[in-house]
Amino acid sequence: MSDAPIRPIPQPGILDIAPYVPGKSGAPGSSYIKLSSNESPLGASPKAIAAFRSVADTLDIYPEGTSKILRTALGEVHGIDPELIVCGNGSDDLLHLLAQCYLGQGDEAIMSRYGFSVYPIITKAAGASIVMVDEDDYTADVDAILATVTPRTKIIWLANPNNPTGTYLPDAEIRRLHAGLRQDIMLVIDNAYAEYVTAEDFTTGANLVREASNVVMVRTFSKMGLAAARIGWMVGPDHVVDAINRIRGPFNVNLPAQLAGAAAARDSEFNDRLKAHNAQWRDWITAELDASNHFRVIPSQANFVMVLFPDAEHATLAFETLRDRGLIVREIGASYGIPDGLRISIGSEQAMRGVAGILNALVKVA
């Protein structure tokens, strides 16, 4: 007779899922600069902060259940019908709902090799299998993705720009990918870093969503200063919106977050300043580290850069040295399978100069 305790058992496959591991948040001592989670280098919009505070005396009242305040603002700013927008508790919430709606036992979802590490979690949690496709120099490979499609394929997860590489596919490639898919396969374009893109041939995919019946675009406020508020949104065809609204949690976006998100979306002055700061220091640190010929910085369109070192040992040494100097960056070996790389969020001028100085000093010592 077994001595194992009798207790509830998770569904098959749940305990095989590797949990999401966030970037480290602390360092030895009391003073540190966090460059591990791709947060806004300029904080939050002052208008969003004021909007959040404005409802402090009404926390006892349920919010309107469809996030109408936020959907209306997003529709105005982005030229989208608010009825085709669904808001969530962060974009992860919406990605989970998409997987739950459109994946099941025996199905497959495809992602690029170094795509966002949440995709395997939500795919497996829905009972489906994740299929990883090799990339072309850390960039999603459209031909390889299309060649991997099978009758079991139901979703393509595509982060554009991608985390942790910072690479992107231009509009023409997104359209070529979509054109090669069956109409019953959903293309999910995850635009978490769209606010920071400066490439002229990039589009969010919003026009493709309008034109097609199997494309969804997912966005977030987390990278533009509201990470703590947990606000995500998606736009999709009416039949997808209907399905997601049937299973999303009631009141899934709280009122302070709705108001803060609406204010942040409309604060074009702050958003323009945030984008300009990021572009300046993203380009600066890329050039500064590339000039040493000891690192390789993958060209990024996000609010971070991925730096490749000669090997995993050098990457670990760089991480530990930065950490000991109060600069926390993201190791991406265990979570993304890039042991010789570090992901470094774009921060203040002081932080960027500090990172470059420390890494260049390491080269001289070596």
From TrEMBL:
Presence of the UniProt keyword ATP-binding in the record: no
Cofactor: pyridoxal 5'-phosphate
Domain Aminotransferase class I/classII large: 32-355
Modified residues (N6-(pyridoxal phosphate)lysine): K223
EC number in record: 2.6.1.9
Broad EC category: transferase
Biological process per Gene Ontology, one example term: L-histidine biosynthetic process
Xref: CDD domains: AAT_like (cd00609)
Record GO terms (molecular function): histidinol-phosphate transaminase activity; pyridoxal phosphate binding
Pathway noted in the entry: Amino-acid biosynthesis; L-histidine biosynthesis; L-histidine from 5-phospho-alpha-D-ribose 1-diphosphate: step 7/9
PANTHER family assigned to the protein according to its UniProt record, in alphabetical order: HISTIDINOL-PHOSPHATE AMINOTRANSFERASE, HISTIDINOL-PHOSPHATE AMINOTRANSFERASE 2
Subunit structure of this chain's protein: Homodimer.
Family: Belongs to the class-II pyridoxal-phosphate-dependent aminotransferase family. Histidinol-phosphate aminotransferase subfamily.
The protein's name in its UniProt record: Histidinol-phosphate aminotransferase
Annotated source species: Devosia psychrophila
